[in-house]
Every structure is written in C-alpha cells, then in structure tokens.
Design goal:
Blueprint lengths: L3 E5 L10 E3 L2 E4 L7 E4 H5 L3 E5 L6 H9 L4 E5 L5 H16 L5 H18 L5 E4 L5 H9 L7 E5 L9 H6 L4 E8 L6 H11 L3 E8 L14 E7 L5 E5 L2 E2 L14 E5 L3
Helix pairs in contact: 3-4
Length: 266
C-alpha cells in the first residue's frame, strides 16, 4: 500500500523534531521491532537493558552480534518458555485437525527454538519474568554497578509513563534510551518534560511513527518510537530533520496501512 497520511507538526509539538545524526542505522527488524541507533552507542554500552519482550527479539539478537561482550537483560512477565511451548502444542492440534498450515506450525516451533537458544543457552542473555512498575524498575537499576554504561530499550505498552521520571533521575547510567510511546495525546506535557530533562546530555536523534496506531486528538501520531543518544555517541550535523520517516532506515510497521509523513516547520 502506498497511501500516505500527511502530518504537519503542530507548533506546540516542535520539541519532537529530531536533530540530524549522520551515524544512525537500523538494528533489528526492518518493520516492527527495529530501532534507529548508532553503532557508537552500542559499542559504548557494557549492559543492554530491555523492558518488554513479547514474541520478537530481533533488536536484541542484532545488538548481541555487534557487541557480544555486553550482558543483555530483558524483563517481561507476560511471556516465558511455557508460553511458547503451549503455542507449539496448540498449533500442532490445529494442524492435525486441518485447521492450520504446516508453515504456521513450523513458525511456532522455530520461535520456541529461537527463544531457548537465545534466552536460555547463552550465559550473558537473561529473560527475567518481572512485571515492570516504578518500584521494580528502581530495583532493577539498583542491581547494576554505579558506573555502568547501559543501553536502555522500553516497550511496555503504556506503562512507560510510570518510569520516565526514574529514567531522568538515573540518566547518567545510560548511553542511549529507546522508548516506544503510547497514548501520546494524553501525556504531551509529561513527554515534553522528559525530553527537556535530558537535553544537556542527550540529543533526540530519531522519531518513527508507528502506523499500527492512529492520529491523536492533537493531530500527531499517538504511537511512536524515540531514539535519544548521549551526545558523545551522536555525530550531529547542526541541523534538524524537516521530514520523517527517513528513507535510509525507516519502513512502515504495518505494510498494509498508510504510513505517516511528518513535516516539521522551518
């Protein structure tokens, strides 16, 4: 589908206009699950901390190959080994009853095997079955050495609003911060304050609107991914983006839906 939805950025949302960073590239899936980041930020990190796993870990798989020495911790209480094994068994029953294809059954089996290989058999990769809240996130951060250099990814389906202040409070720990934002039109001031609190040490390097979501009442996409890089990890060009997405590394999250074209003033 080639339809586009043109989105002129409202003046009061210009704080979301990213700077041009020349060393950005995409890590993970081309569509949903991938993020724009710099290799410098990845190589500067001693730990990778991901909040939210679901059924997709292409980002973590990619960064593990770029920086294999770093430990990867992912926190999500909604999926686990039994979850993936149960999906295989249900898929087998459907296949035997001629209700599903062999391709779908093979895909479920492959996902189970990939989960075991990546999250159970590699000593430096660990999936923690912990529900993310402000309290648990504070405890997680306290478990890292004080001089840690952490790459942070947050995709926890609307719970990000509970922990933004803790990210700000502990910002000296992070080399990069990736956040998927949900229900933006109800939290504009919270996000403005969050980005503003990081301005001295981080740059807003990228924004990618997720076309699985809709436009909010403010006329801006309600779901999008943000990339914030520590200034030492970003080769900035002294300019801001005039339009998003960036053709070099952005693709629509949903290929069968119109994509958002965001135009910034200036």
């Amino acid at each position: 589908m080639t339809n586009k939805i043109l989105v002129p950025c409202p003046t009061d949302l210009e704080f979301l206009q990213p700077v041009v960073v020349s060393n950005l590239r995409r890590f993970g899936n081309a569509a949903d699950g991938g993020y724009a980041l710099s290799s410098t930020a990845l190589l500067s990190s001693d730990f990778f901390l991901s909040l939210g796993l679901g059924e997709e870990w292409s980002f973590e798989s990619k960064i593990s190959r770029v920086n294999p020495r770093a430990r990867i911790d992912i926190y999500d209480d909604t999926v686990h080994l039994t979850f993936f094994a149960t999906k295989v068994l249900k898929g087998l029953v459907k296949f035997l009853l001629l209700l599903d294809s062999s391709a779908n059954l093979k895909a479920r089996l492959k996902r189970l095997i990939d989960y075991i290989q990546f999250w159970h058999l590699v000593p430096t990769h660990k999936h923690h079955r912990v529900h993310i809240s402000a309290k648990s996130f504070e405890e997680i951060l306290a478990s890292y050495p004080k001089q840690s250099r952490i790459g942070l990814k947050v995709d926890i389906e609307e719970s990000e609003w509970e922990i933004l202040k803790l990210i700000t409070k502990n910002q000296t720990l992070f080399e990069y911060i990736l956040v998927e934002i949900h229900d933006f039109d109800h939290h504009v001031n919270e996000l403005r304050e969050f980005i503003g609190s990081l301005n001295d040490d981080f740059v807003l390097a990228h924004l990618h609107a997720n076309n699985f979501g809709a436009l909010g009442v403010n006329g801006f996409p309600n779901v999008f991914e943000l990339t914030l890089l520590r200034t030492s990890n970003a080769l900035t060009m002294g300019m801001k983006r005039k339009q998003l997405p960036v053709q070099e590394f952005d693709t629509p999250n949903a290929k069968n839906r119109p994509d958002f074209i965001i135009n910034f003033p200036g």
